[in-house]
Design brief:
This is Zf-CHY-domain-containing protein. With about 400 residues, this protein is α+β, with helices and mostly antiparallel strands. The protein has helices spanning about 10-30, 50-55, 60-75, 80-95, 100-110, 145-150, 275-280, 300-310, 360-380; strands at about 115, 120, 130-135, 140, 160-165, 170-175, 190, 195, 205, 210-215, 220-225, 230, 265, 270-275, 320-325, 330-335, 350-360. The chain has nine helices and 17 strands. Helix 3 runs antiparallel to helix 4. The two termini are about 70 Å apart.
Amino acid sequence: MKNEKKIPFSFFSFCQIMSNRLEEISNLSDASDHEEDWQDAETEQQQQPTEQVKERKVEIDESSLRKKIKEIQEDSSLSPKDKAKRIQNLMSHGTTEPSSNEQLQNEIYSKSYHKEQENILGCKHYQRNCKLQANCCERIYTCRFCHDDVEGHNIVRHETKNMLCMLCLHLQPAAQHCRQCHQQMARYYCDKCKLWDNDPRKAIYHCDDCGICRQGKQEDFFHCKKCNICMVKSMTDHKCIERNLECDCPICGEYMFTSTTTVIFMPCGHCIHKHCYTAYIQTSYQCPTCLKSLGDMSEYFERLDKDLERQPMPPEYDKYISHIFCNDCEKKTPAKYHFFYHKCGHCGSFNTTVLKTENTEETARGESSNEQQPLEQAMQRPGMNHDRNTMAGPSSSRTNNPDSNEG
């Protein structure tokens, strides 16, 4: 085995094959000039607290914190919900109030900017001329992401009722135009999702079947009822999987239906984040969900065939076979035992899973032993002569033996 040559097929060749497949999928996802074909219309965010929140946070005196939490827990006048809110505020801001009521009011009733140099109102997530009042805690934030970065709970976007116009600082029911100054809050407004977006570069539409807003032009998409997702019209012949996107990304674990990151469909029909897919195929050609091949691997499998012919297994392993399951054709077949590669006897794929490995010689001996067992059992029945040397039947007698000394 010392002179054994390494398999000439390098992993770089595999990477090249998968890179070509990635390019095909990238071209497919860009077919309608939309980079974010399967996204929630709300933009991708980094889960970082705002500078405003960082300034408001204070150091926590642990002993004082425990004392105040104990006081809250022992206060019988407070409901469990009120206790939870007060404890949450302590854990977020410490034992010292983050700011006075006057300062807090001035902070809320003020303008915030998406790009202050260009005088574009909004936040780091959106361009918009208003803030929203979260219905869950009645606090005012520029957008739901600003809220979720700070609070210990997530906003329910559909339950938002009020907005604060940043042009006249008037709190009022959510709408596209301000009741007081009559200015437009955003170019796009969805009353169902309570989404305002004033970015002129974005095309957004609301899908009633999805229940949320999606990026892109509505005429470029169709909603698949079985997959329950909007897709570009070039994917009308896709493989349907029921409620396909209502699951977590198999790589990063993020819920994909409302994900703000681009999602693509693999050849098997399962979904994955595009950036997760790009990183994943550098080390694997199998779908992380169903293990099917992510592309045409025939070239790769042909090279494996040739390499295995040039480098057969040592003779002492000829007596072993493996029972395998093919992840591509879903058939079970026997295959020659190998340390790494087992070829499907049905479709020729090497994308297989070993179910068990069998020593054929031991199996043959076991079968031979099993054939003798019925005869041995018959010998042990009542009326049968147990003399293994004579193998006599019921009528046989030792006196019939000419070599007997009796008589």
